[in-house]
Amino acid sequence: MKDAVRIETPLADETCRLLKAGDKVFLSGEVYTGRDMAHRRLCDAARKGEKLPIPLQGTTIFYAAPTPASPGRIIGSVGPTTSYRMDSCTLELLRMGLKGMIGKGRRSPEVVEAIRECRAVYFGAPGGVAALLSRHVKKAQVVAYEDLGPEAILKLEVSDMPLVVLIDSHGRDLYGSVLGIDKNA
Amino acid sequence: MNPIREVSCETVTETVRKLFIEANTVLGEDILEAVNRACAAEESYIARLALEQICENARIAREEVVALCQDTGLAVVFAEVGQDVHVVGGSFGVSVQEGVRRAYSEGYFRKSLCDPLTRKNTGDNTPAVVHTEIVPGDRIRLQVMAKGGGSENMSSVHMLLPTAGVEGIENAVLESVRKAGPNPCPPVVLGVGIGGTVERAALLSKKALLRPLGEKSGDNRLAKMEEDILDKLNRLGFGPQGYGGKTTALAVSIEMEPCHIASLPVAVSIQCHASRHKEAVI
Predict the structure, then answer these.
(1) Chain-chain contact of B69 with A130 (C-beta, under 8 angstroms)
(2) ipTM score here?
(3) Does domain B5-25+68-147 correspond to CATH entry 3.30.1330?
């Protein structure tokens, strides 16, 4: 991508500070997949004070559930699911150290504010181009909640995944303050 | 009396299997043409890039026979069964479900169906939603659609005042897409169902999604509305992937039937750019 910035996980505070809504990035490093049911379980465990199956400090979560890998492949097709469904759990996870999120679509005003407070970043991955995105995954391993099937938590090693900053650590939102098309939504 | 034509249930299963594998791995030429046209019209680099990624993704999926999108959808089947057909060797409904089961297993597609309450996955992407209609003739027409959940979540039914008119309908449709914004993977394809009852309008809106992109309604009033709505949608500014741009929708298709004098049902089925549907006649 033209003018894209290369960044790595775990996301450093300084990296987060410099990213602005609308920036194009290539992300590399470790990310965990997790969507609806995995979030529910992580939040339930956190509320009960139980140990979480993945570290949250500095972590980046990719809201995704890939297709099964056919023989000889690292992963099946993989891409983002719509993020707003994770909003209520996200508030808790951000307070526990979550630093990056990869998904698609809007977030609630509460999540935007929490992203600002916690100096985190929300990235958009292109939806519906999962065969293309799967080429950026170099390793994949189930690390938690295997019984959830496609919704299990996977640890992925990604390389130069093409993303766009949707909400930056200063609380700027691509849809709201940047494009100015979403004021009344 | 017309002679009865026999169709084996194995033929039904095999046809459904093939259609779902093709639907999930080969994007329709009509979609690709619309995306290419949109790409030529976009001014912003990021919007063009998003559209180019859709074409590149389609090429990879077709060549490697892998799923276009990780959400390989809830399987929807529209079956028009000729009244002079006799399905032999088993049940028609079971044969359709078996075709879905085989496609999602053999195609390495995601199994995305679960119990609504426990959220336990059904394990084989069944049951498919099957709409069966008895029609004249001795053929079976099968149209299959792999319907993604993210765009389906943004779909809606509006019971408008009977006097709301064209303006009321257009406003309801525009409002649905504005509310959905970047969530359903734009550029979207919009199916609109007008008339009938609450469930009939919803069904019409789904059927509208089967129409090839670029083909207008045969009813001039609807063709005009399709054009007007598309034009207004593409001024919303969300653009491809919601990154900003001129292409928020690729097409609008409207189907209409008469309704009750007290009602004006309008349903909007939102489909992401990966509009995956195929058909066959057996």
Answers:
(1) yes
(2) 0.92
(3) no
